[in-house]
Structures are given as C-alpha cells and as structure tokens.
TrEMBL record, chains A, B:
Residues 4-171 form the MoaB/Mog domain. This is Putative competence-damage inducible protein. Belongs to the CinA family. It holds the Pfam family MoCF_biosynth. It comes from the Bacteria. SMART domains: MoCF_biosynth (SM00852).
Amino acid sequence: MRVEIITTGTELLLGEIINTNFTWLAQELNQRGFDVLYQTTVGDNPARMKEVLDIAVKRADIVITSGGLGPTRGDITKEIIAEYCNVDLYMNLEVWNHIHEMLSRRNICIATNNEKQALVPSGAIVLHNEAGTAPGLVLEHDKTIFVMLPGPPFELKTVCEKELFPYFEQRFPHLGIIKSHTLKLRGIGESNLAEMLDDIIVNQSNPTIALYARHGDILIRLTAKASSAEEADVLIAGMQEKVEKTVGTYVYGYNHDTLPEVVGKELLCRQKTIAFAESCTGGLATSMMTDVPGSSAYVKGSVVSYTDEVKNLVIHVSKTTLTKKGAVSEEVALEMAEGIREAIGSDIAVSITGLAGPGGGTRKKPVGLVYIAVADKNGSLCRKFVFNGTRTQIKQRAAMAALGLALDRLKESPQNNSEETIHDHDAER
Amino acid sequence: MRVEIITTGTELLLGEIINTNFTWLAQELNQRGFDVLYQTTVGDNPARMKEVLDIAVKRADIVITSGGLGPTRGDITKEIIAEYCNVDLYMNLEVWNHIHEMLSRRNICIATNNEKQALVPSGAIVLHNEAGTAPGLVLEHDKTIFVMLPGPPFELKTVCEKELFPYFEQRFPHLGIIKSHTLKLRGIGESNLAEMLDDIIVNQSNPTIALYARHGDILIRLTAKASSAEEADVLIAGMQEKVEKTVGTYVYGYNHDTLPEVVGKELLCRQKTIAFAESCTGGLATSMMTDVPGSSAYVKGSVVSYTDEVKNLVIHVSKTTLTKKGAVSEEVALEMAEGIREAIGSDIAVSITGLAGPGGGTRKKPVGLVYIAVADKNGSLCRKFVFNGTRTQIKQRAAMAALGLALDRLKESPQNNSEETIHDHDAER
C-alpha cells in the first residue's frame, strides 16, 4: 500500500513548529508494512489543498492528513476532502456528545464553532479521540482511502494507536511488517567497523544492515522485512549473532540503552563507585552520568580541573609532570585519574585531558587530541584519541570515549595496556 | 517569490530523522519575504524525484532541495536536476581542490566516489561549503531557480548563511521582509513576565511580541514586517525600548547570545575567574560554561560533590551543617560556594544543591527544590528555587539559574540579599 502523508498548517510552512507528526507516522506505518512514498506540507488554503489532494490521489493508495480538524475557520481539511469526494457532512451525535463532555469536564462553555467539529462526512468511519475534541476520520472514495487525523501530536498518536492501527490491521491483514533492532557500540570507529563487517554488509539482503555515528555513539541497525513480528525477530536474531561474532566485544547495549545507563548498571551490580577528573570535557562526562536517575548511588563526585593550578592543588598532579609533559599528555592523564581516585575515594576513576579547540592546537598537539585514563585498585591505563568536529562535538566524543573506557575496565576487558593508542579519525561522522 | 522545498532521503520517509532542515529553511525564507507554499519529501528514487520536480516547477518560482549531494550511488539530486534541465555535469576544479583539502585535513584518503561530489551542472553557481565536501548549487532553468543544498543540517545552515542568503539579497533586492529580534532574560518566570508586559501584549500589531521559555531561557521575540531592513529595525527598536522600560533589568542578551557567553564576557572584561560546586546539576553548569571557546581564560575549575563525603572532604562543608540541615539547604549551598572558592582560588564561586528527581522528594523538600549560592570577596548569598520538569530539565533550569545568579553578582545588581527566595513555578514551560 502506497501512502502519502499530507501535513497541513501555515505554522509548519512558517517554520514555527517542527513536523514531528510526520516522523512518528512514517516510523509507525513503515513498521506495519506500508510504503510511505511521499510527504507534502501545505498551508490552510482551500485551492492549494485541493491541488495537493489531486496529486496525492494519483500516486498513493492511502492519503493521510494531519491537522485542520479544529473548530476555527482556518480548519478546512475535513470540508475540502468531503467536497473532493462529493459527500455531505452531517452532525454526528456521538461525536457531539463527546465534545460536550470533554469541554464541560474542562469547565469550558461550548461555543457555536464547536458544532463544526461534530460534522462528519457521510460514509466516513469515526476514529474516537479520547485525548481531544476532534475525531479522526476514514473515508474511502473510488480507490483511495483518506485518513484525517487531528494535528496536536498527543491527539494524533492517541487516535492512531487506539483506533487507526487496529483498523488497519483488520483492513489489511496480510501486509508484511518491517522491524528494526539497533546495536550500540563503543571503542571503535565507523570505518573500522565497516571494514570488519565488510562481508556481511556486501552480502546483506534481509535483514539489511546499516552503520551510523550519532552523538559519539556508533550504531548498527538491522532491519528485517517479514510477514509477522515473530518471523522478523528470528531473521534479526540470526543476523545479530553473525554480527556479534565479529564485533560483539564492542557492543555495549541495544535500542534505547545509553552508555551512561549501561556504565551505571555495571557499577551498581558490582557495588562500585566512580569519579572523574575532567579537563577539556569541562564536566560533561559527569553531567551525562548524572542524567541517569539514581546515579547518586555510584557517582561520588568529580573535579573539573580546567587549569594547571587546579590539577595540582585539588587532584595533586605534580608540577614537574605538568611542566615537562604539558597538561595534554598521557602522564598528566594518568596522574589525574590516580589523583582524583585518591582525593574522592572512589573505586574507579576516569580522567580526560585534551584540546577541544577551536584555538590552542599545534602541530604536535592538534585540536581534538585527547588522553583518557582510567584507574582502579589494579592500576591505571591511558588511551590516546584524535577526535574531529567542533568544540562541543569533541567534548561529546571525548566524554563518550571516557565512559566507554570505564565500561571496559569494569568488564575487565583484556585490553588493559597502558601503552595502547587509538587514533579515532572517524569520529567526525 | 513562491518557494517549494523538497527534502530528499529515504531516511526521512522511514521516520528515522526529523526534518529540521525544512523548519529552519522555512523560518529563514519567510523572514526574508519569500512565500514558502509547499514542502515535499521524496525518497532517493529517480522516477519519483523527477515527478516531484515536475510538480514543483509548475507551482513554485524557486525549488530548493536538501540532501542527495553526497558521494554514494544513493545521492542523485544533482544528477536528476541536471538531467531535468538538460545540462551536462563537469568536474569543477575549485570544488575538487576543496574536497581534497577537507579530506586530507582529516587524514582520509580520497576515494573515487569523491569525484562525484566535484561534478557541477553546466551554468550552475557554486555555493562554497566550508563545513563539508558537497557544495550547494544554484541552477536557473526556464523560469525556475533550482537551489541544491547539502543534507547535513550544519552544512546546510553554513551554505545558506554564507552563500545562499547573500545571493538572494542581490538577486531579489525588492522583497518585503520580516525581521525578528529576540531578547533573552533570566531571573523571571514566563507568567510573571506576561503579566508585566500585559499592556504591550494586548495592544501589539507591528511588531508583534511573543514570549517563549526554552531550555531554561526566557525569550521575548519581536517580529516586524517592513519593506526594508532599516524600516524593520526602526520598528523593532521602538518596541524594544518600550519592553525594556518595563523588564530591562532581566534582559541579559539578544538573539544568538547565550548565558554562558554573556557570563564569560563579563568575567573576561573584569578579569575575574569563576568556579562551581555542583551537586544536583552534576557538572552541567561547568560544562555549559566550557562550551564557550576561550573559556579556559576564566573557568578555573569545579567540583561535582555528588555525595556528602565529597562535599566535606573536597570543599570542606562542615559535617554538622550536612547532618543538621541536610545536603539540600541554604546553609550547605552557602558553605559549598565559600568552600569551592577557597579550594580552587577563584574570584567568584557558585554552588548548586538540590533534588533533580525523579525519586528522593519529600513534602518539605520536593523534587525540583534547588538552592543556589554565589560567593565572592564581598560575601555570599543564596536563593531558593522550585523548578518543574523532568530530571534533565531540572538540571538544565538549575544550571541556567546558577549562571544567572553569577551574572547578577558580576554586574553588582542591587538584589544582594541572602534571604531572598524565588519560587519559579513557571519553569516547566
């Protein structure tokens, strides 16, 4: 089934609101096996909306609109589609009673223009809207199914989940579905990953495999087409096994897992505490860790040592090391990690020192150079990274890498080698 | 000038990414007097893209595409438009050199498919892309102006601001314009602000006035319609004067100013340094301050004291105060500010202690309760806030309030009263 989604509203064309309705609908419909081929935005203008409908009917089987079902004169979607299908509008008593009830519950007097919201095109199916006054509507005309949805995102979602999707399941029982599953990785760049998975990527068919880098995360998304959710799950599980045989050591979580959450869980179940000494990340790593509810159980505290003086005074990095090696060096990173661990008394400690830029880079120490060290009772190790990106991107990537290193140490990965150096040139994508 | 924006990419139709490019473009183009009448999304499919172009050419004077200028086979926008306009592609040396330079700067070997990005349609104007490898392109054909923009949002914005908009200004000098000017405020809630400006809001016409709360900032946006930028500026200046007569003391900056930048500038010009002791914000305030390039000149460092132990050990909050008053209290906030100032040796110090939730709230100390204290050589003061929102929103609002308080102290505002209490119940919007 070919779908076109028409989002209406002058506020969209003025750029006043972001079209999240379309993104959500597209996700949900694709997962249910519909082909969303086009999306059009048009203002609250009768002539232009008719013209857009005319085009949509020619290239789609299902035309879904969002918005324009409200009580004002500017709300014209239902009227235009009824006119287009050459059917009358009638006052639907059930809808009218619902509107009445909703408004009186909010202590709002019913106005004449609310009657407009109770008008339903003849022959349309009413999709009850428990979250608002405007119902959704389904109207079949010739070979096209028109679906009209309310514009407010919460109402649109409610009507879809409670009414439209169940209707679609009955109406199109044999549609295949698309299901996705995301693996989240740390400690590897996108291009190295692509190389390691080259065989699988070249020979992919169903499920497909795609690599992404987003906010310092590396993602592998597996997408399966199948006739049922169960079949899709089996296809995905098979592919996941193949992928993890090759790069499983880099996988830290799935789908909505975040690295701070996963590190937090590891700390919790091992009853360990963590502390950070942050230089170029300026507190970001700790802030990310403390975004997780309940993190006070394992985050003891941190020091942002933005100057050499604070590195020396508060976390006891030796003045000699600072002078001889410079603040951005493996030696300082190691002393920072050991120093913060001692100062705060945490089980594990992570330090980050580097150049976030845009100024301050040299040939030997370019912007993006970051040393990250981790220390616990077994000793300490340091890794070197070179990140690309803007100042805030470098901060983000360095903070994510620091959490990744903490996770490695927590899981006692075999890479406990203080000499190890990784050049992460891919980090900019 | 009627504009249609065509956003391309299967990832949009799958609902994988939100179409922020369109929203941004729509805002910018409307402000410049263009009529954005249609927006269409289509996948990376030659037949469908041609069909969409065909429709767009009939109903718009300017057709702007975003996406599909990359090096892969799936990137087809330039090729389809060139074919549509019946012009050849040629290898543009200037673009090629730029690509070469960008890739070698990132230590990436140039691949054969990068050549594709240097191909330019004959007769097209190249819009230099300093943020990426794919340039923007302008191609006039018959009565249509085709504008091709790269898909990554940062690249699209850069190409528009540095190249496309200046080109439009020269090409369409007589368009009416809409101009906006934003005032940024701290230390006042949205509903109090609305009350104070009630007269102005009720009687608005041109410029219009709108209030927003976003990411802990309170914004007033003035929007003028005029035939020239100068005329718009005069209208806006008049309205701004009226607004600032009433609420000027709360205004900290304009348009793209951020509170961390403004605080940074105040510190720089007074040659003062700052330090933070953060509890519930977990490092966020310091991270925000250090997002600003050059902030190492005035941020000395911070301590995230997420446990009582660290509050006592590192920044010397007395155990008695912690036990008697609890970590979330005015007394602890004051000792934290004084303690961090001493420990790090900064001119000014700010402390934040509170409950970010979602757990841990009590009747007396609810989630959202935050004490923020500021200390300098003249003494210290503390303010009490109650923020609404999720854990991360409360962190954000508390961090912004802390920077606001630092700014007040730096500007030696008259509100240096350690008893003062603000209930910021509006903060959730």
